[in-house]
Automatic annotation (TrEMBL):
Residue stretches making up the HTH araC/xylS-type domain: 193-291
InterPro entries (alphabetical): AraC-bd, Homeodomain-like_sf, HTH-like, HTH_AraC, HTH_AraC-typ_CS, RmlC-like_jellyroll, Tscrpt_reg_AraC-type_HTH
Organism annotation: Ructibacterium gallinarum
Name of the featured protein: Helix-turn-helix transcriptional regulator
Keyword Cell membrane recorded: no
Keyword Secreted: no
Length: 306
């Protein structure tokens, strides 16, 4: 496992996928996945066969009915070791899916061990632990919603993933397992909550990391390093992310020009706004507006037919 690759985000039709769900079925024994890592959090639900998974060079076994939890950026390799068929459902998703757009550090604290690649108390949840819960059904529902993409499927995917993680966190809590992060213990979350609140309210203003570092009584280098570790984006990337999110609402609900929206959301020029929008959304603001306008009448038509 010394040799491993870092996989990029999944891109489909030019758009970055924040959730990816598929079923992996192969003849066994076989190497199902070579050693790799990615920024996604990943969950596996085994349908058939026995497998060995290496997580940061430590070996675990999972079989039919078991669930596996893989942290963001955790190196992993999967090998089917039984004879017959290997089959499991794969669910990958961006860690930010579990937060309120990174705006709530107190929600973020529950997810830090998964996103910082710190130790989590359990990697494999065996069939006896989950067979009488709603978890097996949710994995099949996730696979069906992702494959068929019914109305509101994106919301359904996010909701069901959050339900699985809520179950995991409460199960650990009830079992007396302690889940915490060194960052949480240091009190940094309270300071960063103040920063996130400020940025969410004043995103349209010219704000610098140096100003926020002074606000937190930190050096610029320490603030920048810890901000990226907690939020998984640099200060500038996060601020632009918030601005782009705000601009989406204006593009969808107003007739403001691209230049007006750029100014209202804190961008210095419309060209920089367009550049950043393309970076985060993989399409231009104009294309986004056209796409939204095309979807809205179709949605209303479908609702009228029900």
């Amino acid at each position: 496992m010394e040799n491993w690759v870092e996989e990029p985000k999944v891109i489909v039709n030019g758009e970055e996928r924040h959730i990816v769900v598929h079923i992996q079925t192969l003849p066994s024994p076989i190497l199902c996945a070579q050693a790799h890592s990615h920024s996604y959090i990943e969950m596996l639900y085994c349908l058939e066969g026995t497998h060995e998974i290496l997580l940061n060079w430590k070996s675990y076994i999972f079989s039919e009915g078991d669930m596996v939890l893989i942290n963001s950026k955790e190196i992993h390799q999967i090998k089917a070791i039984s004879h017959g068929i290997s089959s499991y459902i794969v669910v990958r998703f961006d860690p930010e899916l579990l937060y309120t757009s990174y705006q709530n550090a107190f929600e973020l604290k529950y997810m830090l061990p998964f996103t910082l690649n710190e130790h989590t108390p359990q990697k494999v949840f065996h069939a006896e632990e989950i067979k009488n819960t709603f978890l097996p059904g949710l994995f099949h529902e996730l696979l069906e919603d992702y494959s068929k993409q019914p109305y509101c499927f994106e919301f359904a995917l996010r909701t069901n993933i959050c339900r699985i993680f809520l179950w995991i966190l409460r199960y650990w809590n009830q079992s007396g397992l302690i889940l915490h992060s060194a960052i949480e213990d240091s009190g940094l979350l309270k300071q960063f909550q103040t920063v996130l609140d400020y940025l969410n309210k004043h995103y349209d203003q010219d704000i610098t990391a140096a100003e926020m570092a002074d606000f937190c009584h930190m050096s610029y280098s320490y603030f920048s390093r810890m901000f990226k570790k907690v939020v998984h984006r640099s200060f500038r990337e996060y601020l632009n992310y918030i601005r782009i999110s705000k601009s989406e609402l204006l593009l969808a609900t107003t007739n403001l020009s691209i230049t007006e929206i750029a100014m209202q959301t804190g961008f210095s020029t419309s060209s920089y706004f367009i550049q950043q929008f393309k970076f985060y959304k993989k399409i231009s603001p104009k294309q986004f507006r056209k796409k939204f306008i095309a979807i809205e009448p179709a949605t209303k038509l479908n609702q009228g037919m029900e």
